[in-house]
Amino acid sequence: MTKLSGGSTVSFEYGIWKLVFKKNPSASTHRQFVNDFFQFMETAMSQYSNLFVTGDFNLHLNENSLIIDDFNSSLNAMGLEQHVDFSTHVSGHCLDLVITESLNVHVMSCKPGPFISDHCVIKTVLDIKKDNAISKSVASRNYKRIDNIEFFTALYSIEVEDQSIDTFVEQFESKLFDVLEQHAPLKEKTCVCRSSKPWFNEDIVQLKRQSRKLELFLRKYPEQSNFEAFKTASLRTKYFDTIVEEQKHVVSEKMVSAKGNSKKLYSLVCELTGTKVENPLPDNVADT
To answer: Crossing angle for the helix pair 262-273 and 235-257, nearest 10 degrees?
Structure first.
């Protein structure tokens, strides 16, 4: 999408945009869509938490097929859960999905709403575990935006009084800093630091890179022989299986560390099942 022009009048604003489709999305197959979707989810899950994915997937999830089996097995392997179990289209198919991470996002209800078009509204109530994100301020300068000619001219124009060497150095550094501050001012921005997933280790990263490399090669050379070689390599299956095994290993270590500590073990079970930890006692009893 490219903006061609824009402006405003007394009563409204307007913009003229050029929209170019480089590739017709409808030309892709269901198999291609499933591959692309889980490639996207691999990246998203390694960078973000509490994911909630919804939309028209255009897959007949209520039918039995190899594509649907592959889609469901990939969801399970990545620790994702699909919550829509009813028809969402006037033709009776389940096309619109609600997908969440099984660990942190608990879906309390997922029900069909009215058909305001050929698709129905999906009413979803979520209980999301807040991610303990830490914010920090980072100061930086944008040196790439410096105009070299103006910057050099400003440097050459620096004048320092001829005094003792200590005073000379102090004045020179001060004026040099003023020039730098003028052409590349120091700016602060707040970054959110999220804890990385404990099971996403270096071995999984390497498997992901190898699988992605083969998939890109297959897109460039989509011959049947290459596709058979890709399936034989089974890197994607190995990648998902390794994720599942590593997740089990991490959970097992947490269970072992909580051995003998019922409170810690109870909190861990609530964390894994998405259950809210609440005090069952009345307020007056809890206070005493």
So the answer is: 150
134, pLDDT greater than 80: no
Distance CA(161)–CA(172), nearest Å, equals 9
Global confidence as pTM: 0.44
The residues with which 72 forms a beta bridge, in sequence order, are: none
How many of the other CB atoms lie within 10 Å of CB of 284?
7
> Is 50 exceeded by the pLDDT of residue 210?
yes
Greatest Cα pair distance in the chain: 89
Give the span between the Cα atoms of 37 and 45, in whole angstroms. Answer: 12
Q: What single DSSP character describes residue 89? A: B
Amino acid letter, 163: Q
CB 114 within 8 A of CB 121: yes
Whether the per-residue pLDDT at 145 is higher than 50: the answer is yes
Ramachandran class of 234: left when φ > 0, alpha when ψ lies in -120 to 50, beta otherwise: left
CA distance 252 to 136: 33
Give the span between the Cα atoms of 288 and 283, in whole angstroms: 9
Angle at 188 between CA 183 and CA 189, to 5 degrees: 130
109 close to 124: Cβ distance less than 8 angstroms: yes
Q: What is the dihedral of CA 278, 46, 212, 79, to 10 degrees?
A: -10
Tell me the CA distances in angstroms from 9 to 4, 18, 87, 103, 111, one per residue in order.
17, 21, 47, 51, 45
H or E element: which one contains 207? helix 202-220
158-167 average pLDDT score: 79
Question: H/E element holding 236?
Answer: helix 235-257
Task: Select the more confidently predicted residue: 86 or 134.
Answer: 86
pLDDT at 288 over 60: no
CA distances from 247 to 34, 49, 55, 140, 199 (A): 23, 15, 27, 37, 6
